[in-house]
Structure formats: structure tokens, C-alpha cells
Amino acid sequence: MHDIHQTTADALPTIINYLKNAGYEFVTIDQLYQHKLYPMTNYYSQHDTR
After folding, report:
1. Of the candidates 48, 45, 27, 29, which has an alpha carbon nearest to the alpha carbon of residue 37?
2. pLDDT digits (tens, 9 = 90+) for 3-21
3. 16 versus 37: which is more confidently predicted?
4. Is 7 exposed, middle or buried (0-12, 13-18, 19+ CB in 10 A)?
5. Dihedrals φ, ψ of 41, to 5°?
6. Which of 22, 40, 24, 23 is nearest to 32 (CA)?
7. What's the rounded Cα separation, in Å, for the pair 43 and 37?
8. Does pTM surpass 0.85?
9. Which of 49, 20, 18 minimizes the C-alpha distance to 35?
10. What does the mean pLDDT of the chain come to?
11. Hey, how many other C-beta atoms are within 10 angstroms of the C-beta on 33?
12. Cα–Cα distance measured from residue 10 to residue 7, given in angstroms and rounded to the nearest whole number
């Protein structure tokens, strides 16, 4: 999704509500990985950084 398009930005609240109602939970990347993340690091999986 690209927020440079107004139609995408306008649709986002509807999409988020739909996904939440379908059981999805939104979390931050920090919450997903459960540890401190470092800038300029590529994260390929929880235990694979390059």
C-alpha cells in the first residue's frame, strides 16, 4: 500500500477494521521480534540478521 495515493489512505480504516473483525491483530515490528532492533540491519527471520 502506498500512502501517496489518497484512495489508499482513505481505504485504510476500512481495511484495518475488516482485518481486525477477521481475527488479525496488529503489532509493531519490535513486538513481533520481541527484542531490540538495530538500524541498518536486515532482518530475514527472528534469528537471521545480516
Report:
1. 29
2. 788 998 899 999 999 999 9
3. 16
4. exposed
5. -120, 135
6. 24
7. 9
8. no
9. 49
10. 85
11. 15
12. 5
Q: Do 39 and 33 meet the contact criterion of CB atoms below 8 Å apart?
A: no
Do 42 and 50 contact (CB within 8 A), yes or no? yes
Say which residue the cell 538495530 belongs to: 38
Cross-strand bridge partners of residue 10: none
Nearest-angstrom CA–CA distance, 41 and 33: 13
3-state secondary structure (DSSP) of residue 43: strand
pLDDT at 33 over 80: no
